[in-house]
Design a protein that fits this description.
The chain contains 19 helices and 3 strands. By secondary structure, the protein is an all-alpha fold. It has a 3-stranded antiparallel β-sheet.
Length: 477
């Protein structure tokens, strides 16, 4: 162990003398610190802003004056998804999917106000989040620092001297590996501090610890990759060229190929095509604003038979409200079928892309990171489903008010004059039925369970690189 420590100290002394290596370490550490601070401030502001907007939207809805109940159906309501504590490190899909939805009758609106749609067209390169730095740039920094770890000794002839003097090759390599890992962990320190801050702000210690462990394993993998390539090659220039090529392939090309392949293997229906398909099906359901639409003839017959009357005017309920309630139920069932199909297609593509984690540790870590942070596509889909449940409940509650608390004839005459219009309004106390919306990520245990396949991908990479290192050592001997 003393030899391993001595070799690690010698590596650090060499990096201290080499201005390039020292500069890279400082730049890498400062970048991760800066990105962690900026992203923390941004997410904290977003959380406070969205919480405030959620309360404001709810209070404005319930504070509306006396109105016709169907006016309130179209007045609508906003719901917002607040960032998870660990999103200060891993924003995940949140920057692309939108964080607010306008809920109203007869429609399922898309989530809006995503950062990337309002930002530049450079996608992930338009914002240096801590997760992006650690997944993509820190491996490059480790390469630039350690590409000559072993080749330097070969070129100087000191490797053979140390081996002939009885220095164990594995001890030598483990000392250099320890130095590389410690360098990577130094750049990982801001993430550890940010994860601790997330725990203080409500995140589970279990989730924060697992999150950090995934990134530590990633640093171990890339340090081993750098050491293996440096061990396999005789010249530093060749080692550097190979490592940069490996980095481009693993961190840039393969993740992109994974996304493109997923879109080709499991193509999804385009938005315009889906909207036309929905509109075509909706026309068959009838117009819920028109109680005389032939689509509601059977409903009319059933109500007349149920209450044993001959005319809708004699019904104890408002037929127009009953039509609105019936129409919304059928419409929601249809919209949910299309929404579930769209989400299934999106998830299928995502799961295909995630399988590229067996081909690149960058994809494995990104999938693991988003699952633990609660910023994955599955979490976004749950947000859409919970928002839709709230939408349907408050719209149907208003339709029930329309049906039970407003007389049919008064409703029909509301456009005659101002007095008739006022008579067709219901008391504002009916708006109190709106439920609060407070979206929360899955429990820590659920997120850990969902992240296990991607943790196994990282373990596979650690094992694979370890085997490559053993082969490299045999070649030296």
């Amino acid at each position: 162990m003393s030899i391993i420590k001595q070799v690690a100290k010698d590596e650090w002394r060499f990096w201290h003398r080499t201005k390039l290596a020292a500069t890279i370490i400082v730049i890498g550490t400062l970048l991760t610190i800066f990105s962690a601070i900026v992203n923390t401030i941004t997410m904290q502001q977003a959380q406070h802003e969205r919480t405030h907007l959620q309360h404001t939207s709810e209070s404005r809805f319930v504070d509306q004056p006396d109105r016709h109940p169907h006016r309130m159906v179209h007045y609508g309501h906003y719901v917002f998804r607040t960032p998870t504590p660990l999103s200060i490190i891993e924003p995940g899909v949140d920057a692309f999917t939108g964080t607010a939805i306008f809920l109203e009758g007869h429609r399922q609106n898309s989530a809006m106000f995503s950062d990337q749609r309002q930002g530049s067209g450079m996608t992930r390169f338009s914002s240096l989040t801590p997760s992006f730095l650690l997944q993509v740039l820190v491996p490059l920094f480790i390469i630039m620092i350690g590409y000559a770890s072993v080749t330097r000794e070969k070129e100087a002839g000191t490797l053979n001297i140390m081996l002939t003097q009885g220095v164990n090759l594995w001890h030598l390599l483990m000392g250099k590996y320890l130095a590389l890992v410690s360098c990577g962990l130094l750049m990982l320190l801001p993430l550890i501090l940010a994860a601790s801050w997330a725990s203080i702000n409500g995140e589970s210690l279990l989730a924060s610890g697992a999150f950090v462990s995934g990134y530590v394993l990633y640093i171990l993998i890339w340090s081993a990759i750098v050491l293996t390539v440096s061990t396999l090659n005789a010249k530093s220039s060749v080692s550097f060229a190979v490592l940069v090529s490996v980095w481009i392939a693993l961190c840039i090309l393969l993740p992109r190929i994974g996304s493109s392949s997923a879109a080709s293997i499991a193509p999804a229906q385009g938005k315009l095509e889906a909207d036309f398909a929905v509109a075509e099906q909706l026309r068959k359901l009838g117009d819920g604003h028109n109680a005389a639409d032939p689509a509601f003839d059977q409903l009319k017959k059933n109500l007349l038979a149920q209450y044993k009357v001959d005319k809708v005017e004699d019904l104890p309920v408002n037929f127009r409200g009953a039509v609105a309630e019936f129409s919304e139920k059928k419409l929601t069932q249809l919209l949910n079928e299309f929404a579930e199909k769209r989400m299934h297609d999106e998830l299928t593509q995502t799961q295909i892309a995630r399988q590229f984690g067996w081909m690149t540790p960058a994809t494995a870590l990104r999938s693991f990171s988003m699952m633990i942070a609660g910023t994955s596509l599955e979490t976004h889909h749950r947000f859409l489903r919970e928002a839709e449940t709230l939408r349907y409940d408050f719209v149907q509650s208003l339709n029930e008010v329309h049906r039970d608390k407003l007389q049919y004839q008064v409703d029909m005459d509301r456009s005659k004059d101002s007095h008739a219009n006022k008579a067709a309004r219901v008391d504002a106390s009916n708006w109190q039925m709106l439920s609060s919306f407070n979206f929360q990520p899955e429990t820590a245990s659920t997120r850990l369970w969902q992240s296990l396949p991607y943790f196994f991908q990282l373990l596979f990479w650690a094992t694979f690189v370890g085997l490559l290192l053993r082969i490299a050592v045999r070649n030296i001997r």
